Amino acid sequence: MKFLLLACVAALLQLAVCDPREQEKTSRNDFEEVELNIETVRSKRGYSLDLEHSVDGVFSPRGEVNIDFGSTKPTAVFPSKLALNEQQRSAFQNIVAQNGLYTIRARSEPGNPKSPFVVASVPACFLAKARFREDLAFHVNEVGHLISIEFRTPFVDSATCREVAKRNLKEATFYSTGSVFGATEGPEVPRIAMTATKVAAPPGVAPVRLENEPEPEEQQSFFRKYWYIIIPLLLVLMQGGGEPPAQGAAPARR
Q1: Number of structural domains in the chain
Q2: Beta strands in 182-216 (DSSP E)
Q3: Could you say which residues form the signal peptide (predicted)?
Q4: In a domain, 99, yes or no
């Protein structure tokens, strides 16, 4: 009888240990491997990007740049130079005086007028100081679509910019060079099992819950959960006494 009761208590203890409400669930790492086809970019023959720029607050055509993926190293070539007219030079000089930005943009998918613009800006002072020599980097994804444009014009400090703003721009002809950078494989995400961590609120502070979140279930101890089973078992063990005397045994002497 005692052995059976002890087995029942052991089973209850095992049930409490395996209770899913007593343990935090471990999430699986379900990251899928995505293979980037880097050679897809290099296999394309190339395309032309129609650039636009903003000098007076309104975007207007600036010219095109030819992106070539056929060679060993992708290239960006500007077939013509951009020369600002008198009105544009005056507007550009105002941007320099106001420490403003010169902005260019191009469609992310050449030939698709509904594709989003890719925008890049640079302080106008930087270009004026460099005598309009600009170096642009065009970043493309694994299928050759434009994802970003980067100005690589040398930095100019604020004191020098104030001196540049005093100059009169008699000529503004852009001497543009460019580079193309394709997508590259980045480091792999570590495959580490992630465990949800519950942080208790400080004493006296009520935890923040969402508007429709139900009341959190009160954490109960093992005894509070299974008292209605444990107490009867303990009473049975206590009242059971010792083993009954064997049949035929002599009674104890007084």
Answers
A1: 1
A2: 194-195
A3: 1-18
A4: yes
Q: Provide the whole-model pTM.
A: 0.57
DSSP 22: G
Q: Could you give the angle at the alpha carbon of 175 between the alpha carbons of 101 and 88, nearest 5°?
A: 50
φ/ψ of 16, rounded to 5, equals -65, -40
**Residue 200 domain flag:** no
- 3-class DSSP state of 130: coil
Tokens standing for residue 103:
């902005």
CA 107 to chain centre: 24
Residue 36 lies in a domain: no
134-187: per-residue pLDDT in tens? Answer: 999 999 998 889 999 999 999 999 999 999 999 998 899 999 999 999 877 677
Task: At 205, list the tokens.
Answer: 């502070």
Looking at the domain assignment, is residue 166 inside a domain? yes
How many angstroms separate the CA atoms of 192 and 116, rounded?
A: 36
- Burial environment of residue 98 by CB neighbours within 10 A (0 to 12, 13 to 18, 19 or more): exposed
Enclosing domain of residue 84: 46-182
Question: For the chain, give me the number of helices (H) and strands (E)?
Answer: 7, 11
CA distances from 137 to 30, 78, 248 (A): 35, 12, 105
Say whether 240 sits in a helix, a strand or coil.
Answer: coil
Scored b (16 or more CB within 10 A) or e, 67-82 reads: bbbeeeebbbebeeeb
